[in-house]
Specification:
It is a single chain. The chain is 42% helix and 15% strand. Strand 9 and strand 10 form a beta hairpin. The longest helix is centred in the C-terminal third of the chain and has 22 residues. The chain has 20 helices and 14 strands. By secondary structure, the protein is α/β, with parallel strands linked by helices. The strands form 4 sheets. The chain has a 5-stranded antiparallel sheet with strand order 2-1-5-4-3. Strands 7-8-11-6-12 form a 5-stranded parallel sheet. The protein folds into 3 domains: 114 residues, Beta-Lactamase (2-Layer Sandwich), CATH 3.30.450.20; 172 residues, P-loop containing nucleotide triphosphate hydrolases (Rossmann fold); 129 residues, Helicase, Ruva Protein, domain 3, CATH 1.10.8.60. The protein is globular. The structure holds adenosine-5'-triphosphate and magnesium ion.
């Protein structure tokens, strides 16, 4: 009878035979590194037999955790299943994966003339992005990380529901509700405290909707200068006002045509604009500044807020009619302190990305550290959790485990929890930045140019940070 060990020996023997007289010199050995990223194997039913580590991480699966799970429960593009069923290869297709264009190849696996499954591989298409990446020095994996984080495609969503980690009943219910709502064409309002994942959810809704092939245009309402809001949103004809561009400009709503417009922090929308906004949302048509022609626009509105809009209505700062328009389907994200059970999974799954960003080597988090994280109040929610993990990864260096002693002090005392405010969060961020800079300077022997490269910021950016953090 053959044992699992025999099976392994057979595989190794096959690889050896396959290599023939070619030695596993680095260029050959490198071939096997793809096992780490961008490779999925399925049988003809779509049951997964292999998934690379990076994908496992992104789904929050442990090593080997995809074994036997159904491909269609994890991936939206079902091309690989098609190949596993038809045996017809799909070579070199360009596909959008989390907002970035990738070259995807899917090959049938045939044994003894029988189709037994399919193999899917991803190759990077955004070569220019990789070339310019500040993290180019690292491994292939690092590049993937940097492409995803540093080169977001314009007007494209970058995250899907698979990126929203957590299994608590409250988050699961929100995700399910959001999925159902995504399939309709209703206006949606996402509410939740700062850092709960509203933006992540907005991206995912777009990707899950029938508009996923169209643009996803994010408008950060508070960041638009007051007197430019109207032209930014609705566009203008040439010569509409002094300083206007010769060619005129298309507004965000027009750019979102066929897709989704995401009005982030809609509470910051000036009252003077709200009437026009209401009309555009109701009528789905607009008149750019300086134009007398109305244009029909096909968009879906997703808005987000972390303040109580109803309160603003009562204070006369937000129009009631607009409020009812945008809140037709409300979706709320609960604060992290109300879904403590998500903390271990979130922390473990976010760790690999944070390690990569900070060139850390932490592999695990001690039970005591997890316990302390689980009783903390997290006023800054997941964003704060990421900051705390970043700080802890740096504190733990060169250890491979985050222990309770590596956590920021306020997590250890339990007392400070009640007084944690925005100021304290800013303090944590500044602290983490200081540590990261010190670490990078130490690694590069004080060479600021190299340290800036390591940190993924420009040299000027580093000097600015040094000044702001009073480190010069
Ligand atoms: N469930 C989650 N799983 C993984 N990452 C998450 C999750 N929720 C939030 N994040 C991460 O936390 C950070 C904050 O999330 P996001 O920007 O979506 O929050 P937000 O609600 O829009 O916050 P704000 O109101 O301050 O703008 C991001 O880095 C995001 O990727
Ligand atoms: Mg946000």
């Amino acid at each position: 009878m053959s044992t699992p060990d025999d099976a392994w020996l057979n595989v190794l023997k096959k690889i050896r035979e396959g290599l023939g007289n070619y030695d596993p010199v680095p260029v050959v050995a490198e071939l096997f590194r793809f096992l780490d990223e961008g490779l999925v194997l399925v049988d003809t039913e779509g049951r997964m037999a292999f998934m690379d580590r990076l994908s496992e991480n992104s789904f929050g699966l442990p090593p080997g955790g995809a074994k036997g799970l159904m491909f269609q429960d994890f991936f939206r593009d079902l091309g690989l299943l098609e190949v596993a069923k038809t045996g017809i290869p799909q070579v070199g297709r360009v596909q959008e994966i989390r907002g970035a264009k990738r070259l995807v190849t899917r090959l049938p696996i045939i044994k003894d003339r029988q189709l037994i499954g399919a193999l899917g591989t991803i190759v990077f298409h955004d070569l220019e992005g990789i070339e310019n990446s500040p993290l180019r020095i690292g491994s292939h994996r690092l590049r993937m990380f940097s492409v995803k984080n540093n080169f977001p495609a314009q007007n494209a969503a970058q995250y899907t529901f698979a990126d929203i980690l957590g299994k608590s009943p409250s988050l699961t219910e929100t995700k399910e509700r959001a999925m159902r709502a995504a399939l309709t064409d209703c206006n949606l309002l996402i509410t939740g405290e700062s850092g709960t994942g509203k933006e992540l959810l907005a991206h995912s809704i777009h990707q899950f909707s029938k508009r996923s092939g169209g643009p996803f245009v994010r408008v950060n309402c508070p960041s638009i200068p007051f007197d430019l809001v109207e032209s930014e949103l609705f566009g203008y004809e040439r010569g509409a006002f002094t300083g206007a561009r010769e060619t005129g400009q298309r507004g965000k709503f027009e750019l979102a045509s066929g897709g989704t417009i995401f009005l982030d922090e809609i509470s910051a929308m000036p009252l003077t604009i709200q009437a026009k906004l209401l009309r555009v949302i109701q009528e789905k048509e607009l008149e750019p500044l300086g134009s007398s022609v109305t244009r029909r626009i096909d968009f879906r509105l997703v808005a987000a807020t972390n303040v109580d809009l109803l309160q603003l209505v009562q204070e006369g700062k937000f129009r009631a009619d607009l409020y009812y328009r945008v809140t037709s389907v409300p979706i709320s994200l609960s604060p992290l302190r109300e879904r403590h059970e998500d903390i271990p999974l979130l922390a473990q799954s976010l760790l690999p990305g944070i390690n990569q960003k900070l060139c850390g080597a932490v592999r695990s988090i001690s039970a005591e550290a997890i316990r302390l994280m689980s009783i903390y109040r997290w006023p800054g929610n997941v964003r704060e959790l990421i900051n705390v993990l970043e700080q802890s990864v740096l504190n733990a260096h060169p250890k491979q485990e985050i222990g309770a002693e590596h956590l920021p002090a306020f997590l250890k005392t339990g007392k400070a929890n009640d007084v944690m405010g925005e100021k304290a969060i800013r303090g944590i961020v500044a602290d983490a930045e200081r540590k990261a800079i010190n670490y990078a300077l130490e690694k590069t022997g004080g060479n600021k140019k190299k340290a800036a490269e390591l940190l993924g910021v420009s040299r000027v950016g580093l000097y600015e940070k040094l000044r702001r953090l009073r480190m010069t």
